[in-house]
Structures are given as C-alpha cells and as structure tokens.
Write a structure and sequence with these properties.
The protein has 16 helices and 9 strands. By secondary structure, it is α/β, with parallel strands linked by helices. The N terminus is likely disordered.
Length: 355
Amino acid sequence: MSANVSPSGHQPTATYDSAFLKACRGEPVPHTPVWFMRQAGRSLPEYLKVREGIPMLESCMRPELVTEITLQPVRRHHVDAAIYFSDIVVPLKAIGIDLDIKPGVGPVVERPIRSRADLAQLRDLTPEDVSYVTEAIKMLTAELGGTPLIGFAGAPFTLASYLVEGGPSRTYENAKAMMYGDPELWADLLDRLAEITAAFLRVQIEAGASAVQLFDSWAGALAPADYRRSVLSASAKVFDAVAGYGVPRIHFGVGTGELLGLMGEAGADVVGVDWRVPLDEAARRVGPGKALQGNLDPTVLFAGPEAVRTKTREVLDSAAGLEGHVFNLGHGVLPSTDPDALTRLVEYVHEQTAR
C-alpha cells in the first residue's frame, strides 16, 4: 500500500482526516466544514482579473488558470474544501459537441439532439480528451495539501436538457416531450450521458480529487414519478461507476424538495439540499445513512451581518441532529455577493460549531 493512501486504500492521507471528509462520512468533526458552490469565481475580483478576455470554456482548459481560480477562495475564505473550476458542459465539448457558453445566456448547442441519429454525436470520453483536467488536478492537490478537492460533473438529466433544448430553458418542453413521447430514445440518451459523466468523474478521482459532486441543476422540474421512471437509473449508474474508489459522492439539485429521498436512493453518500426545505425535514425525507449538505439561502448574504448570523444559526440548529453536515449555500454564490460576507460566514460557522 502506498504511503499516500488511507487504511481503506483509496483516499490520500493528507485529506482523509479533514473535517469535510469526516462530515461526508458521518464521523465526528472538530467543526462543521464549509464550502460554497460557485466559490471559485464570479464574486471574486481576483477571479475577474485573471479571467479578463478569456472565454469560459477556454479558461476551463488552461491548467495553470484552473489551478489559480480554484485556489482563490481557499486562500481568501479559508473554506474546508476546494471545488474544481470547470463547467458541466466541459465533457460534452471534449467529445466534439458543437457548443459554446455565451455570456448572459449560458451553454448553447449548435445541433440539438432531437432524433436517434443525433445520438451519434455522443462518443465515449477518454482521459486523453480531458488531459488538461488531469494536469490541473495534479497541480491543485500538490498546492492544497490537507484541503480536499471536490471534482464534479453534470448529471445525465441536466446535460440531456441542455442537449435537447439547445440551451437553457424554463419549461424543458423539448426534453420532456422526448421523455414522455419517445421513452426508449430518452433512456438511450441518458444512458450514454451516464457513461460520459462517469468517465469524466473517474478522470478527476484518479488524478486526485477527494470527493465528487453530481449537479442535477434542473431535476426540480420533474415530478417524483417521472424522476423515478425516467432519470433515477441514469444517475445511479454514474454513482455506481465510481463507488469503488471510496470517495464521498454528493448529489445536488435545485427545487428538489420532493425528490430528496429519490436522490439519496440514486446512491449518493451526501445529499445537497437547497434553501426551501429545512435540514431536519430534509433528513426525514432522505432517510438514515446519508449526510446532508446545505442550505443557507444565497440571498441572505445581501441582508447584512446580523441577518446572516441569524439565518446561519437557524441552519445550524436544524442540522444539530444530523449524521453528518457540510455547511453550504442552498445554491451557488451570486455574482454580486460581497466576498467579505463569505469570509465572515466561514468564520462564524467555524466559531459556532467548534467542538
């Protein structure tokens, strides 16, 4: 056994006993760990400076730039975990899908997938397709030391929604039309995306990521019966594919209060909860054996320090009886958030939960 792995043979020893990984495993922690979705970028002036003039997708393919951006919130906020700077459409771009991230719009796909013939666009992802990811993660883990790095990917449903709609959508009429009207094509599409997503997560874990998060950003558009029938098996395939690595697997979606139990059933070790459901109620819906992540409303950070402390205390009180709790926002950091508010929030959670 290498000196750089835990007794389980999977996790690097430098991060294995971190507060973040202990919380993910439901073990006692010295304090409640904190990290924020979209902490790498957006609200930080140092991020805007290094990204100036560089398109989003290009910035995701420059290992030195990815390393710098990923480290920025760790340096500034002293969060308990870093999240790899990337975008959920990176693996799709890597296999040749003609797409771009347009400022103010989001990912836009040139040739949406609407027929069985269109599935030919979705070839297997190989490590060579994303060699820049491997390079960046190796650079990052060397810099981070005992701070865990979270890898991530988009979940099959959310990726399918972008691919079928051709871009962001409020109604998902094309994606849902395929799901309801051609369930065999839909199942094949999600299965192919599950394979691509699993391959992308494997690359990140093998390069040194200590945990992974599956973002199903748009799953809240689904009724529970439709999620179980048409989505759950694809997400479960992704989680199953990386189960053998022994790293914590996190599952997050927005507006998924009615789906929390099903999302846990898909195989995650940690279920992310948005701000709409208190954590004690979320724990009841998810059931035993899972840690929870969340769930301060991101807009609270605009309300001033006293309001932030009050609402944060509510989250911590709601999490008091959980098997494991990772403090986070109920969605990503909003672009106009004051970075100092995030730094104060980390300090407050650490102070309030010190054991």
